[in-house]
């Protein structure tokens, strides 16, 4: 009561409500810029789709026009080449699809379909391909340009019929069937008007009747091309066994059927072209003797047609995936028809008007046609093409209103018929990430009529009156946020707690009996706190250490801030509701219900009761969340007599729809980042894990180096892995895992294996996240990377901590990649993402990594030779001496001394790299050339990184850190490699081992002034907070009155245990309190009452069995420790010998080539004018091969990055366009008050999920201001 009264008194002080709102730019998101980017992107896509569709159709119809019998641009004897190009327009997509299908069939899956399936599919493909060839090669060159533009819209006839049949098969006829019926009627009307127009001219003209009949019959048969789009839906509602087996076989054998069908199309087209040329008595020999001008005209037209068709198909797909179907897909393709008509008709009209202005008499259209017959062929290309287009209209008498009316009527009828046949696309239902195969039924697009093929190829569905934006038969997903903590600082813990509460506000938990429009997922947060307890001298009770108690204070403060986020400025603030605290077999548990109903559970681990360190915390939550909470639930239903088959289906469904978000104790993320990862796993069932873009935070040169290193790694390496194969490592600081993948055979159970061999300590414990991904890859799961999912984590800020971190990562990375390559054949068969070429790429990467030290020595040797103008062999010897000496010292000196020496050498190498860089630039300026091998390599690499940075505009500033990265290359890839390889037997964690307690200064001996200042601060804290503060020994005091407790190294093994445990026992408080940890928390948390509860019996038994089987603390056996220590040293010696022996061989081979000049390549230097300067550069052939291989690898990464970047943009724009629809009415009216939270004034569709750009100020328990970012 006293505490409540004191709290109420404080809240009623109106003069003390002012807050400090810091600006933290690293975590702010420029939503206005993002909204502008989205608008610009959609506008550009719409313009591009419209433009390339117009270019594709225009260029194709120009080829048709050139093949017309009255065209004069090409003589009649040169028509075979035009007909061949028309056939190429039709064949080119088939060739591309055939190559793609062969690739997939060879490297992924390929099954042979049934004979009846092959016969049925190939029969229809034969009819369609023959119809297309006859229509475009035989019939259309004899028709007028207006008919040619419009008759392709008539290929929707059978589509309309099949649509009506699909509606009838559902036995639920409604108004949506009317567009299909009217589409059929309008298309038939167009054919009737077209037939009447041509036949009325001369009913006795047999040739015209034949051309018209072929055009009508062929175009009708072409409309069978999209039969599977509608028969698929009919088969689902039909009892026909044949149709069901047919589509099931087509789905499983798609690659093989695509190969067969494309080969049939190519063969049929070739036969039609050859037969028609022979029957028309044309000569193929003229193909090779066409004059240059005509040949260039044809090449340009066919080139534009092929390229624009490919671009139109790709950008149309991008428009649909961006959820801009109407704006960027339908409307541009509809308008493309009108644009093509205008492109052809307007120039004809203008030229005709010019003729009428010249000719006062006989200036009708027939006279104009007679004039065109005598025109000169020496005019401009544009004039010749316009005249040829005009010639096609001379058959009709356009001076008669009736002819114009019939021609216009047929054109309008066909276009309206196409619009009505595709009107269902206006109500197209899409996932946020839409698979291409679920969007387009056929993989093949038709280059001859690109817009019609794209519109009719969209998967047909029967619209419903009530429509949901998201379609999912799995229901809402369940996400478990799992963070591991150990010795995080106050600010680090603040980051992750705010991120969790931010997600709680973004996705409130629906109340019982209510449904939420934000029902795509629910979540529960779990924090696993390692070594959270400390012993109390003279008592059997344990208390939470200062790190754990600081976490509780942070949760309390953040909870209070988020609870009062919408209150008025002077209104009484709400008190944090009562929460639960539970004793458990592994230590204790704090359960906090966040303001929006989701839970955050803190598991305090006692290292005397449960195995500690990060991997075992992960095993703990895997078995608890997936084994106990998920699997055991269905076991209980089965025990009660539930239907076994139904239980199995429900369990499988929940495993697919349950995800674990692995986090570090300092990760800062946004709700949008989680959603973007969830999208990928929900859409692609074969994806077992997905990671986001990790941004290191901090300050200082070490962090600047890591910022560019992380950026380059994510920009190029991770994207290349994602595009060409699978990501090999999903970092544990921010990755989403699928429960089904983790619960698969040889994954979760193998991950819980205790290290028993020396290699286990390196592969299992030093890089646990990479090992977990290796296990998933071996089971056939794919790991992906999403560049738009940003997360921030603290990076080592000093040289020593960075070296110790990389000492862990280097050997474990190598061990896991070697493990993957050793199982390459098995993984390639089981994992469709891991092809043999991708394994070859990884083999080259690991070889490059192994030979990295030697390569750096060669680079240094070249630098010395360049600067001092000495022989390359001498410079190589000089370059090898320092790292060799450092290698020898590393075997003798302590790790700290090794790092100190590396720091000195790093400075020397950095200075040398600066000199070399400036010398190379000066040489290029002096020689006025960049055409030397080294200059070309540097220029290309710089260009790749600059272009890559431009494609990541929000990270463009990181390129400036690239200068520091370049000069630190010898330190990172030579000295650090030596240090990590020699010290691979040290299996301690290496980081967070020298930091002071949370918010405290290092424990150094204080001066009298410092002690007096600390006392005054302590006294002021007591007076301000009205709380008793237990002062510690003066020699241990810090600014916040806390003492520093020596930290136990967080290794995952029993090897190399430090002396901290003994030191900790000797540093117990002089006057220990008598209460246990629950009483300690209850006394400490005045703003949040804690109820003491107990586990139920079943869960209690689960934890006891889990501890006994997997997580019981490892025994401290000195003999086994010594044995493992010796085995680790032995393994280190073997691997180090092989590693540096290979580097020595590489250096010796290069040395031999240079000294004895066995083989060398001499290149003459040329300036920018390509004139020889007289200088000569000698290139080492071995080094040249390695550089070329590296350049090829970087080029592949660049291509992969570009492809991945475009897909990331598509996904992000789709996210921005769809997430806004989940906004609740309350949130639409909500403008957060300024008393507890400041939110920027964006009102775009993205702002509702951006709770990231807001700031607030918390008051810590001692009254000091804690600035943080929401």
TrEMBL record:
Q: What is its main location?
A: membrane
One GO biological-process annotation of the entry reads: chitin biosynthetic process
Q: Which GO terms describe its molecular function?
A: chitin synthase activity
Q: Which cell locations does it reside in? A: Cell membrane
Which UniProt keywords are given for this protein, alphabetically ordered?
Answer: Cell membrane, Coiled coil, Glycoprotein, Glycosyltransferase, Membrane, Transferase, Transmembrane, Transmembrane helix
Give the signal sequence positions.
none
Query: May I have one GO cellular component term?
Result: plasma membrane
Q: Where is the composition biased (Basic and acidic residues)?
A: 1223-1241
Q: What class of enzyme is it?
A: transferase
Q: Which reaction does it catalyse?
A: [(1->4)-N-acetyl-beta-D-glucosaminyl](n) + UDP-N-acetyl-alpha-D-glucosamine = [(1->4)-N-acetyl-beta-D-glucosaminyl](n+1) + UDP + H(+)
Q: Which PANTHER family match?
A: CHITIN SYNTHASE
Q: What is this protein called?
A: chitin synthase
The protein's organism comes out as: Oryzias javanicus
The taxonomy runs: Eukaryota, Metazoa, Chordata, Craniata, Vertebrata
